């Protein structure tokens, strides 16, 4: 395996200083860690009680254990690993360690993807997650990673009514129908109000 030397990025001590300063003024800590090499980012996330750490392709078992102990979520970004041909994060080991796993797009010029159905598809096909784990990663665990799971992320009494309505026999089709899953969406409801339908398009917030 090629060793990648990172330059122009914060080292672990600098990162810790910045993160501690943020935590001291009440910010939830959520940062990218251990994408190209094991820099100790996952261990730092656990040590500081971060809300979440993203990427984690090269996170060590000790780092994953530290995240599990602190309740820190892992935000896995399968489009990035796929497009940059990185080793995928060890989703199964992270899940088995007891770390909440969320999913994200990492949308940026080198991972130019806004589609959560594609992210869920890649989570299943390249990270070895089950459809149920991918769904949780895109909903309730994603909300947890943002410290919002008490308000959004699940369809339950007391949470905000953010709902996507699908026209399909099985909900898994939103993952299975690669590249055309968005065509299954018939309605989008945000805060209890209809903001999109296939018949009328977007109607605003």
From TrEMBL:
GO CC terms in record: cytoplasm
UniProt cross-references to InterPro entries, sorted A to Z: Amidohydro-rel (IPR006680), HutI (IPR005920), Metal-dep_hydrolase_composite (IPR011059), Metal_Hydrolase (IPR032466)
Cofactor(s) essential for the protein: Fe(3+)
Annotated TM spans: none
Pathway, per record: Amino-acid degradation; L-histidine degradation into L-glutamate; N-formimidoyl-L-glutamate from L-histidine: step 3/3
Catalytic activity: 4-imidazolone-5-propanoate + H2O = N-formimidoyl-L-glutamate
Keyword entries, A-Z: Histidine metabolism, Hydrolase, Iron, Metal-binding, Zinc
GO biological process: one example: L-histidine catabolic process to glutamate and formate
EC number: 3.5.2.7
Molecular-function GO term, any one: metal ion binding
Enzyme class: hydrolase
Pfam families (UniProt xref): Amidohydro_1
Family affiliation: Belongs to the metallo-dependent hydrolases superfamily. HutI family.
Protein name: Probable imidazolonepropionase
UniProt organism field: Clonorchis sinensis (Chinese liver fluke)
């Amino acid at each position: 395996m090629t060793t990648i030397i990172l330059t122009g990025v914060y080292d672990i001590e600098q990162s810790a200083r910045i993160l501690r300063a943020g935590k001291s003024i009440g910010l939830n800590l959520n940062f990218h860690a251990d994408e190209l090499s094991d820099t100790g980012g996952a261990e730092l996330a656990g040590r500081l009680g971060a809300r979440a750490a993203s990427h984690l392709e090269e996170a060590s078992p000790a780092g994953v254990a530290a995240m599990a102990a602190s309740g820190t979520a892992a935000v896995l970004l399968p489009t990035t690993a796929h497009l940059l041909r990185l080793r995928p994060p060890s989703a199964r080991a992270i899940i088995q360690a007891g770390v909440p796993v969320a999913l994200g797009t990492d949308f940026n010029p080198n991972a130019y993807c806004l589609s959560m159905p594609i992210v869920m598809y890649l989570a299943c096909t390249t990270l070895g997650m089950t459809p149920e784990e991918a769904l949780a990663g895109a909903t309730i665990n994603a909300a947890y990673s943002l410290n919002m799971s008490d308000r959004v992320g699940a369809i339950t009494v007391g949470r905000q009514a953010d709902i996507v309505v699908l026209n399909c026999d099985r909900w898994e089709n939103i993952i299975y129908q690669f590249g055309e899953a968005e065509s299954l969406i018939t309605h989008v409801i945000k805060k209890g109000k209809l903001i999109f339908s296939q018949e009328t398009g977007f109607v605003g917030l």
